[in-house]
Amino acid sequence: MSSLAQPLVDREDLREQVDTRLRAVLAEQRTVLAGISGDADPLADAWSQMLRGGKRLRAAFAYWSWRAHGGAPGGAEAASIVGVGAALELFQAAALFHDDVMDRSDTRRGVPTAHRTFAARHRDAGWSGDADQFGLSAAILLGDLSLVASEDEFLRAVRDVPAAAVAPARSLFTQMRTEVTVGQYLDMHAQMLPWTDDFDADERRAREVVRSKSARYSVESPIAIGAALAGADAEQLATCSAFGLPLGEAFQLRDDLLGAFGDPEATGKPAGDDLREGKRTLLVVRAMRALGPVERAELASRLGAPDLTASDVEKMQRTIRETGAVDEVEQLIETLSGSALATLESSGLSGPAVETLGDLARAAVQRAA
User: Fold this and answer.
1) Phi first, then psi: what are they for 108, rounded to 5°?
2) CB burial of residue 3 (10 Å; 0-12, 13-18, 19+)
3) Is 311 helix (H, G, I), strand (E, B) or coil?
4) Quick one: pLDDT at residue 2?
5) What residues in the chain have per-residue pLDDT under 50?
6) Please, what is the end-to-end C-alpha distance for the chain in angstroms?
7) Domains and CATH numbers, the chain
8) Could you give the C-alpha distances from 105 to 99, 208, 250, 276, 366, in angstroms and in order?
9) Other C-beta atoms within 10 Å of 241: how many?
10) CA distance 82 to 323
11) Which residues pair with 108 in a beta bridge?
12) Model confidence over 186-241: pLDDT tens digits?
């Protein structure tokens, strides 16, 4: 995240409050796992590693939307929204465990992914069986544990919130998790399809993945959940979506640019990671549309190839830049984020909390990691 966003997430001690709640959840889970078997300790260690990083952006969007819609800092209601923020972070951890398995990623935030860590543990110990399969299975189970914990934490957080506010928030939380799961499938499905000259269909699929896999759960849903818990009405929740969805799309499109061109020191992933994984992002679709048949076939043959060298990645990056696709995506980010901010400005909301929400929106699309 950009340097601008870090102090924004720290305002009203939000990051520390969310982190404190996450540490409490992990301590509880360590006790539960230890009570089942001492052999489960590595699961708690890997879970802690995943939760240790992260921007806390989802928690921040939920909290500052809650504040913008009338929530007051301090007290039991504020503790509830902090708990919901922790639930959102637990859900993100679950999604990342599973995403790393499906993408066969080697690193996450600069350290080995969970499935690679458990595969290495298997090899180092000289255990029988397939080390890689053991690692994949352990990571899937870690994702399941974090998914269950996200539900438990959400229910704990809202137990004293009026039922009229909990009902829409719970519905949004449930829908968000379904959308991400389907979005993961759509992402995987798109990568399996052969390239054709139907770029309109490719672009439609890429935008569907952006919205369902990331835009809604990263931005739109946290904003709407926070507003719902503050007692927002149907019209206000519709405004939250009109603000949050285009902002979430812009957020993910920035992520796509970083996945192709980001600095590994900042992103914690190899250079051109999305190109190595063969992601069918809007960036790649726009590049393929602009290329001639020969260049298109060459780029398609390299996307996701298991033996890509650093030189291959650099050539792909250069090809994509030369098509103008990067500039097109940057322009779309500007258009989407501009639309989102215009909606916020015309929402009728005002005050310092709304200003912080707007600042978070800008930081989300101006980040370098």
Assistant:
1) -145, 120
2) exposed
3) helix
4) 46
5) 1-4
6) 5
7) 5-365 (1.10.600.10)
8) 8, 23, 24, 10, 25
9) 18
10) 44
11) 111
12) 999 998 999 999 999 999 999 999 999 899 999 999 999 999 999 999 999 999 99
